[in-house]
Structures are given as C-alpha cells and as structure tokens.
Design goal:
Elements (H helix, E strand, L loop, with lengths): L5 H14 L1 E3 H8 L3 H14 L2 E8 L5 E7 L5 E6 L4 E8 L4 E8 L8 H12 L4 H5 L1 E8 L2 E2 L4 E4 L4 E5 H9 L3 E5 H12 L8 E6 L3 E7 L2 E2 L32 H4 L1 H12 L11 H9 L3 H25 L3 E5 L6 H15 L2 H4 L3 E4 L6 H16 L1 H7 L2 H6 L19
Helix pairs in contact: 2-3, 7-14, 9-11, 10-11, 11-12
The chain binds zinc ion.
The site of zinc ion has 6 residues, from loops.
Length: about 425
C-alpha cells in the first residue's frame, strides 16, 4: 500500500461511490488515471476488502471484465440532520445506506439544547455491534444557518448564535466531526446519489423553514470566503416588499417563500389571528389552493412568481445543467412548479435556460441524512488517517480498542470537490 498515491485511491473510491457498480475500464475513463495506477489501486483495495468483485462481463473480444463495487460495510458514519422541524440521526454505511435511525421534534420556540443532539446520537450508537463500532469513522452534520471555521453554528431556527457544536460533539464521542450547511449537504447528496449525479454545474434550492442554495459550479462546491455562500433566502428581489424577515430586515426572498411565511401570508389574507401560525401547516394552504380558495391561490401565485424570479437569477449567473428543488414546499409541487416555470422562462436568458432540468428531489425526507453521510465520506477521503482506515477495513477490526487513543485530524471541514 505504501507505493500507492492517496490521490489514486481517492479518485477510485469517489468513482465507486458515485456509480456503485463499475468495471476497471469505466474507472479509468472516469478518473483519467493511467491504467497501471488504477490496476495497482484496485488490487490493493480488493485485497484489503474495501471493494468487492461482484461479477464478470463478457466483452467483445472474449476477454472477461470484472465488475466491482464498494464493500458497503467497510466503514460507517454517524449522520445528523438538524434542518427542518425534526432532528434526524442515522448510522450509515460507507455508501450512505441508513442502517439505524432515530428522530425527535425540534421545538422552534426555544433554543435547542445540545443534550437532545447528544441523546439522539446515543440512541443510534447503542444499536451498534462491536465490529460496526470499530469501523465508525466520523460524524457528518447537516445544519441550518452557517458555521464558522471552528464549527460554531449560528442558526435562527435553532436559536443558536455561535454555538460550539463541533467541540461538543468531538468531546462527547471522540470522533472527527464534519459539518456543513443543509443546502450544501443536500447538493452533495443529489450530486453523489440523486438526480444531479455526475453533473458539474448543478444546484439544490431548499425551500422549507428557511431558503438556501447549494451550488456546484464547474465541478466545485461553492462555499465563499466564510462559508456563507448560498444564503439565497436573504436576497431582496423586490425592494418594495415589506414582509418582515427573521434576519431583522424586510423583503427578503425567504420572508415571502419559506413555508412559515406561506402560512403567515395566508392567515393574514383570511384575517386569522397570527397565533394560529404555529399550528397551521403549509400543506393546508396548498390543499385550500387546490380547492380553489382565492386567498390560498393568491399566496401560491406570489410565492411561485418570486421563486421563478430567484431561479432565473441562478440560471443567468451560474448556467447550470440541473436545478433540484427540495424542502416542504415540494408538497405543493403541482401548484408551484408550473407557475415557477412560467416566470423562469419569462426572466431567464433563453440560451442560459435551454436544456436546464428542473427537478423535485427524489431523495425524500432522507436527503439530510444522506447528505451528512456524503459529506462525511467526502471529507474522510481528504483526511489521511480516515482514508487509511477506509482502505484497510479488516485492520480496523483488528485494531479495535487501540484506534480511540489515536489523535485524529479534525479541521478539514472545507475542501475540494
Ligand atoms: Zn432576511
């Protein structure tokens, strides 16, 4: 293994993660590595048990080609999703399949106690057997708001301001912790496992309690100087709008199109008391619109039109191949998408819009956990200690007990691809 360049292993493992089942020739084509390097890497990974030979294909020349995939049980991650109204926790295997899960409600009216996050992780951990524990590599966290380089989270949803989440998790579980904003973990999941697989220019727009966009541009995840890139919700597209935003300003996109604001506008239109806001669900507004309720339809029109305008800015700025939309707003897909498309067509440069796919996320409610797992996998490849563990799963089992004492690299939150 010593003579293998880590970059070869990373490229091979990324290709296997994304494509699940591949031949050696497909890996060479995808990685652009030279065939000898790929053969060398595959041989080592097969011997270690990180990848498995699952069959053979007959090629035209009569030569048989091996079909390979990742050994899904070669390593495990703890995935945590703090976006939305329910916290989700999961144990995922190397390829992002969820093995155990736990979830609990977030009380949006008060500050989220860190103990409830720790308890959720413990609820998953107690299901692990000794072998799974020894191959548990890292924690991946998908969170709302944004985090600084020290892993301190600021999120209005959770009532957190510079909350030291990474330090708390590292202290409690003695594992590397990788964190990322929900809109970025979602585009990671879509690009590695979902509708945007393999795309170099794609984005995920989340429209739930908040609004954000995760962007892959020219094959790179956009993070910005301080990791704040993608805060689409606080872009003002109508300077005359007076909708109050939770950021303290008025007229932000989020103040119009986020799900609590869809409900707020509907309740205002029908003259209901604002106290009903907490109990009323966005799906009820969509149901009323489907029944022809003019107040609900007016809100839907405004939301879809504003989203279409926002999407046209994304199309013109980033020239994407695909835009995936997720979050609770997709419960109104039948109402929102056709109207959004009309506005998008009206506002975009025709050449930039031509061929752009607009899709609803197919990863469903698991997207946060899958994104957190994809983040943990991606960052583990960049961490030399964790890469070595992925590339020697059997050694990890033998070393069970000794591994916990080792100092681990913990700072590699941001990185390439
Ligand atoms: Zn705002």
């Amino acid at each position: 293994m010593a003579r293998l360049a880590p970059e070869w292993l990373r490229e091979i493992l990324r290709t296997l993660y994304q494509n699940r089942t591949v031949t050696r020739a497909e890996i060479i084509e995808a990685t652009k590595l030279n065939p000898a390097s790929v053969s060398h890497g595959l041989k080592a990974l097969l011997q270690a048990g990180t990848i498995l030979k699952v069959g053979e294909l007959e090629s035209n020349g009569g030569r048989r080609r091996e079909v390979l995939n990742l050994n899904a049980e070669a390593a495990y991650f703890l995935a945590v999703d703090l976006e939305g109204t329910r916290m989700q926790f999961g144990l995922t295997n190397l390829v992002g399949d969820i093995r155990y899960r736990w979830s609990s409600d977030i009380d949006l009216s008060q500050s989220l106690p860190v103990e409830s996050v720790l308890d959720g992780i413990q609820a998953v951990l107690k299901n692990l057997d000794a072998a799974q524990r020894s191959q548990l590599l890292a924690v991946g966290v998908s969170h709302p708001g944004f985090a600084d380089s020290e892993g301190r989270v600021t999120a209005v949803n959770l009532n957190w301001s510079d909350f030291p989440l990474r330090a708390a998790l590292e202290r409690a579980f003695d594992l590397p912790v990788f964190m990322e904003d929900a809109h970025r973990t979602c585009i990671l999941a879509e690009r590695w496992l979902g509708a945007a697989k393999g795309s170099r220019n794609c984005m995920y727009v989340i429209v739930g309690n908040g609004v954000g966009v995760g962007v892959f541009a020219d094959g790179r995840l956009l993070e910005g100087r301080d990791g704040i890139a993608g805060e689409l919700g606080h872009v003002v597209l109508d300077s005359a709008a007076t909708d109050p935003c939770r950021c303290g300003r008025t007229g932000c996109l989020e103040a119009v199109v986020s799900c609590p604001n869809i409900v707020r506008q509907y309740l205002e239109k029908i003259g209901a008391s604002p106290e009903r806001l907490a109990a009323y669900k966005v799906t009820e507004v969509f149901d009323r619109a489907r029944q022809g309720d003019s107040s609900a339809l007016a809100v839907v029109e405004r939301v879809a039109s504003r989203l279409g305008l926002a999407f046209s800015c994304l199309v013109n700025l980033f020239n994407p191949e695909i835009i995936v939309i997720g979050g609770d707003v997709v419960y109104g897909e039948d109402l929102i998408l056709p109207r959004l498309r009309t506005e998008l067509e009206r506002r975009s440069l025709p050449r930039a819009l031509a061929g752009v796919q607009l899709k609803v996320s197919s990863l469903g409610l698991d997207i946060g956990l899958k994104g957190a797992a994809a983040l943990a996998f991606r960052q583990s490849l960049l961490n030399p200690v964790l890469l070595k563990k992925i590339c020697s799963p059997m050694a990890a089992v033998r070393l069970h007990g000794g591994a916990r004492k080792r100092k681990r690299g913990r700072r590699s939150v941001r990185g390439a691809r």
